[in-house]
Fold Peroxidase.
Amino acid sequence: MAKQQLAVLITLLAFLGPAACQQQGLHICFNGWLKVPPLLSYLLCPPGSRTTNPPPSPSPNPAPPSGAGLSYDYYNNNGSSSYCPSAESLVKDAVKKAIDMDPGVGAGLIRLFFHDCFVRGCDASVLLNTTTSKDSPTDTEREGPPNKNSLRGFEVIDAAKAAIEATCPGTVSCADIVAFAARDASSLLSYGKINMKMPGGRLDGRVSFANETDQLPGPFSSLAQLQSSFREKGLSSDEMVTLSGAHSIGKAHCGFFSDRLPPNPSTMDYAFATELEVKCQGNEANMVHQDYQTAYVLDNKFYQNVRANKVLFDSDDVLKTVREVKQNAEYPEIWERKFEKAMENLGRIVDVKSRREGEIRETCWRVNGAGY
Ligand code: HEM
Ligand SMILES: *[C@@H]1O[C@H](CO)[C@@H](O)[C@H](O)[C@H]1NC(C)=O
Ligand SMILES: *[C@@H]1O[C@H](CO)[C@@H](O)[C@H](O)[C@H]1NC(C)=O
Ligand SMILES: *[C@@H]1O[C@H](CO)[C@@H](O)[C@H](O)[C@H]1NC(C)=O
């Protein structure tokens, strides 16, 4: 997609205003992130990016992510060039400090990890606001529709990186910091119930393109699209459902679910929808908590909300037809163990090709040698 087209799409995403957002007559594109009027859709959404018929039904067991080059306790091997035994505790300190001030930032860190790993593998490409060459500037992933004005937690990663560089310079990748931070945020926001293992050894990429964020499924994606986007990354339908439990924390913009509010017909619980309507005030840029009961606790309430028709997005609502939702709603420990495993698998998505050109970045938001 040409850069200008993307810029227009992003402008559209930057919340068209209520009048333009009647669902009727709007086309959904960019893998479920953008609602655009038909004429613009014809001009801006390439045929492949439009929502059409669902892809063929998913195969049950995709090949899991390879995790090539990763291992546990990666920074603890005395004598190796990657020795930095305080790395993981310095990340934890930075995450704890940030969450103590604002638990919402913990949600941001968990989502940052997901959005990093889904695009070019876990390589911190999501953190770059400048890319390989100053001479050929291009919008990075941070400008893509799923990320712009939405991702948060960057300053926590920067703080952890600064502390680590002061102790063991040039040793710990930003991609590993993102992964460790997501693990620590999960533990803190679940009050110690969710403790995943997280291998280290990722490298930082030198490339980041906004257009590649279309690999992330969006709030208007169908169930088949959610499943196929995860399957492309080696994650199963059950893992997709398991990870969606992260929607028990954090916030969302009204523009991503306003088409489900009155007077539009929708499957949302009517009283719940009415409350949301009051909070949104017809403003697509307003934000609400994703879990109206325990907004800052990473728990299995999401699945109870799905069953009660009290979730925000179409992409949450469509999960209610999946068998595992009932089990996750009824047995928190089963979901907690599955969440630990699925987050680790997410962290094992490594793009072997871009890894070859990988580096340990000095500063997480720019590639080494950028000259600025
Ligand atoms: C299954 C497909 C998914 C879709 C369609 C989706 C979509 C979204 C959307 C639209 C938002 C609101 C963003 C905003 O309004 O600024 C959001 C927030 C969030 N998502 Fe997802 N998401 C998905 C999966 C995941 C996964 C796998 C995780 C992590 C494991 C995750 C974690 C979060 C968190 C923590 C937030 C709140 C972020 C914050 O408060 O800063 N989501 N998601
Ligand atoms: C994404 O954008 C980059 C930089 O503008 C371009 O080189 C690349 O071909 C684009 N990829 C797709 C799939 O359009
Ligand atoms: C690391 O190895 C060096 C030499 O091999 C040794 O002197 C040092 O005590 C070791 N440090 C730890 C913490 O084991
Ligand atoms: C890039 O983002 C960082 C924060 O992550 C910010 O401090 C810096 O000023 C930004 N640089 C540019 C060129 O936008």
Summary: Strands lie at 27-29, 34-36, 251-253, 287-289.
